[in-house]
From TrEMBL:
InterPro entries: Acyl_transf_3_dom. GO terms for biological process: enterobacterial common antigen biosynthetic process. Keywords: Acyltransferase, Cell membrane, Membrane, Transferase, Transmembrane, Transmembrane helix. This is Acyltransferase. Belongs to the acyltransferase 3 family. Residues 6-344 form the Acyltransferase domain. One of its GO terms (cellular component) is plasma membrane. It comes from Megasphaera stantonii. It is a multi-pass membrane protein. GO terms for molecular function: O-acetyltransferase activity. The keyword Ribonucleoprotein does not apply. It holds the Pfam family Acyl_transf_3.
Length: 368
């Protein structure tokens, strides 16, 4: 496909980043002794598409820049991707390890075994594990290229089979398998499996690769099936909400247990992720976007990476201030925290992205 700039994909980066912030702010909402169930539903349930959607977007970008019909240099590709992801990962992990250690007055994270474990599994902060699993996807790029070539021989059957296999794997990983207790190493490897086992997100990643290879054909199909896509999105959204309220009403789960049950790797969550991605493509690629919305979504998309890296700092500051002033966080306060965190992270990113920095610092802060 042409390497033209695709605004809809960039818009989706911004929207997914807002979803990620929503999930993390949702953790604050859940901590309320009497949480607002609708607010939690929006922040912690309906925003769940955003994490796997980033794997879709990552695969899309990878296969746009390295399509199957062009020569592929694994060495050159890996050098670029490591600069974009590995260097910022190390830099921000060290920053968050120091940040947490200073706030807690405990520097045990820098003990050798804890230090290695933290970096290996992406434990420096709750959001940064994403870069670890993304690095595994990057390292295995030749495997994904070969797999996509095979899947393109019978795409409908291949993707249906992969989706079904992924649903089964994620179901067992989420609800059935239990951590071994006879070995601390195996126990940690199981507990932190979402941080490196790429099969959890393999379908959505390969789906992004396939759409990148056949973008115009996919858009043509999507544009002709708008009613079906909208109805499917409504059904998937209703399914997510029904599962969320259902486990509380019928299984008597508390809100936290409901959120841990109805997530992006649950069967309904996987369906919801796919329908939401296609839904966004339909409305953002097949329709004109108002100028004001274009500027806002473009800004969020352009700054999504720095926003992702820094937003826990502002969320920590907001919750810390609320705790200092003994503020009871009602729904209006949670929404205010969301807006403040998103706004400050975007402002930081705007400054950082427009600064002329030394190359090494630019790579650490921006990934480029």
């Amino acid at each position: 496909m042409s390497k033209r700039f695709i605004h809809s994909i960039n818009y989706m980066r911004g929207l997914c980043m807002l979803g990620v912030i929503g999930i993390h702010v949702g953790s604050v909402a859940i901590a309320n002794p009497t949480p607002n169930l609708w607010l939690v539903a929006v922040l912690e349930i309906l925003s769940r598409f955003s994490v796997p959607a980033f794997f879709f977007l990552s695969a899309f970008g990878m296969f746009c820049s390295q399509p199957l019909n062009q020569p592929f240099s694994y060495k050159d590709y890996l050098r670029r991707r490591l600069r974009t992801v590995f260097v910022p990962y190390i830099a921000w992990s060290l920053f968050y390890m120091l940040y947490v250690s200073v706030l807690s007055h405990n520097f045990n994270l820098f003990q050798p075994l804890a230090f290695v474990k933290t970096l290996w599994y992406g434990l420096a902060m709750y959001h940064i594990y994403f870069l670890v699993i993304l690095l595994w996807f990057y390292l295995l790029m030749p495997l994904w290229r070969g797999l996509l070539q095979q899947m393109e021989k019978a795409p409908l059957a291949s993707f249906t089979l992969l989706f079904a296999a992924n649903v089964v794997f994620n179901f067992y990983s989420s609800y059935i398998w239990t951590a071994p207790t006879d070995s601390p190493f195996l126990h940690d490897a199981f507990v932190y499996r979402l941080n490196y086992v790429v099969f959890h997100y393999l379908f959505i990643f390969m789906f992004g690769a396939f759409i990148a290879e056949h973008f115009q054909r996919a858009v043509d199909w999507i544009s002709r099936h708008g009613v079906f896509i909208n109805v499917l999105q409504l059904a998937a959204t209703a399914g997510m909400l029904a599962a969320y309220y259902g486990v509380m009403d019928y299984l008597h789960y508390d809100v936290l247990s409901a959120v841990f049950t109805v997530h992006q790797l649950s069967p309904v969550g996987m369906v919801y992720t796919v329908t939401t991605i296609v839904f966004f493509l339909y409305w953002l690629e097949c329709h004109s976007v108002p100028p004001v919305m274009h500027r806002l979504l473009s800004m969020l998309g352009n700054y999504s990476y720095p926003i992702y890296l820094v937003h826990p700092v502002f969320l920590s500051a907001c919750t810390g201030l609320a705790a200092h002033f003994h503020l009871y966080l009602r729904a209006v306060h949670i929404l205010a925290i969301y807006l403040i965190v998103a706004g400050l992270a975007a402002a930081y990113s705007a400054v950082i992205m427009n600064l002329s920095l030394p190359r090494w610092l630019s790579v650490c802060l921006k990934g480029k």
